[in-house]
Amino acid sequence: MTNTDVANIFIPQEVIILKIQEATPYERHFTLQYADGSKMLFEPGQILEVSLFGYGEIPIGIASSPTREHSFDIVVRTVGRVSTAINQLQKGDSLYIRGPYGNGFKLDKLRNHPVLVIAGGIGLCPTRSLIQYILDRRQEFTGFTLFYGTRNPSQQLFSDDLSHWRANDEINFYETVDKADDLWKGHIGVITDLFTKTDISKDTRVVICGPPIMFKFVIHELDKIGINHDNIFVDLERRMKCAIGKCGHCQINNKTVCLDGPVFALSDIIDLEEAL
Ligand code: FES
After folding, report:
1. Where does the pLDDT of residue 223 fall: very low under 50, low under 70, confident under 90, or very high at 90 and above?
2. pTM of the full predicted structure?
3. What is the mean pLDDT of residues 73-85?
């Protein structure tokens, strides 16, 4: 039996920390692998429940693509008891995971179209899984643009990836910060400024993940271009807790984010109060 055969959704599986990188002053980037060496099967955009005995568990989006290594990545922001304890672990220590859960980024709807990914702040973590996937299978997508915005340069995640994307012809990468430091040479301003830097066509498929404040303004820009709401996909993973439909934490009207999402077509949720 492999980890992916485990039928009981309540039983966490042991994973080993292969590598830890200090992503930002608040976030650590973990590379993990199942203790039995098996490869996890998942879709970009899916979620894991990550636990540490004695502390609890938290939902975290997978931050690497299934097209990559046997291992997989997560990023943990220090915000509470569980994440603080996880962020004190060392290489070689164990964590426990359940999942993967959720529906992922609707790859079947993105293929054979230009794709625009719009990531704000820590929203780059789940979308990095999709970004890597598209770069590994670039011929399946007719164009690829990434907008990435953070409050300041020190909050930028995945610095090695950013350097790679800046120099890579396969991806049109635009980035901005709300507030610069002395070293920043790029754009300063809100993420919607990036729409002025490139042409986005009406048939583009769009994926959005970021802080709630960002959604409204980004959608306004997409509406100006005339992109159909069926072709705009939003990741609402921030609302999740148990990830298996038991706690009710993620409920938005008649939608249960962990069971119906976390990725939704905008047309399915735009009229739901509190969805965005
Ligand atoms: S996260 Fe608990 S019901 Fe969805």
Report:
1. very high
2. 0.93
3. 95
Note whether 162 and 136 are within 8 A (CB). no
Q: Are strands 94-101 and 47-52 parallel, antiparallel or unpaired?
A: antiparallel
From ligand 1's centre to the CA of 60, what distance in Å? 13
Distance CA 176, CA 146 (A): 11
Which of 237, 258, 263, 264 to mutate for ligand 1's pocket (most ligand atoms within 8 Å of CB)?
A: 258
Round to whole Å and give the CA distance between 124 and 200: 20
CA-245 nearest atom, ligand 1:
3
Cβ(241)–Cβ(59) under 8 Å?
yes
Task: Count the neighbouring beta carbons within 10 Å of the beta carbon of residue 110.
Answer: 24
3-state SS, residue 162? helix
The pLDDT of residue 175: 98
- pLDDT at 6 > cutoff 60: no
Distance from the Cα of residue 234 to its chain's centroid: 11
Ligand 1 atom closest to the CA of 256, numbered from 1: 4
Q: CA-to-CA distance for 201 and 254, rounded, in angstroms? A: 33
Residues with CB under 6 A from ligand 1: 240-243, 245-250, 256-258
Percent with pLDDT over 70 in the chain = 97
